[in-house]
Amino acid sequence: MAFLQDVSVRGGASKLFAEALRLAKNDGFDGLLSYADLRFGSGNVYMKCGFEQVNDSKINYWYSDGSQRLDRFLFRAQGGMSEKDVAKSAGVRIIHGAGNLVFRLSAQ
Q1: Would residue 46 count as lying in a domain?
Q2: Structurally, how many domains does the chain consist of?
Q3: Do the Cβ atoms of 99 and 57 come closer than 8 Å?
Q4: Per residue in 8-25, pLDDT tens?
Q5: Which tens digit of pLDDT belongs to each residue from 44-75?
Q6: How many angstroms separate the first and last alpha carbons of the chain?
Q7: φ, ψ for residue 8, nearest 5 deg
Q8: Buried b (16+ CB within 10 A) or exposed e, 39-56
Q9: Does 42 map to a domain?
């Protein structure tokens, strides 16, 4: 979801999720799964829209070259080197996130 600054749509999230759930059901899926990035909120919108929290991803992390955030999978262990060593040889530093909460909305 994304919102324009100074724009409010009353019930926008529940309308969006209701339509996504309808489309998922039509395509044979049994629900929706979504992640709340705890850097930006606590996931309350999911709870208000009927989702249940099903997991907590704990702390997550990326790497940075000082100007951009880089996915940690770019620095996977390889050639006998650990992830930490691969990142160090690439000259990047680890940056930590706040984790994610995982939410599910059942189509039943």
Answers
A1: yes
A2: 1
A3: yes
A4: 888 999 999 999 999 999
A5: 999 999 999 999 988 789 999 999 999 999 99
A6: 23
A7: -130, 135
A8: eeeebebbeebebeeeee
A9: yes
Amino acid at 106: S
Structure confidence at residue 72 (pLDDT): 94
Task: Flag whether 38 is in a domain.
Answer: yes
Q: Is 34 helix (H, G, I), strand (E, B) or coil?
A: strand
Short-list 39, 31, 35, CA closest to 101: 35
Contact status, residue 71 vs residue 82, Cβ threshold 8 Å: no
Residue 46 domain boundaries: 12-106
* Contact of 2 with 16, CB cutoff 8 Å: no
Judged by DSSP in three states, 8 sits in: coil
User: Using the 8-state DSSP alphabet, how is residue 57 labeled?
Assistant: -
Any domain includes 53: yes
Nearest to 34 by CA among 45, 26, 23: 45
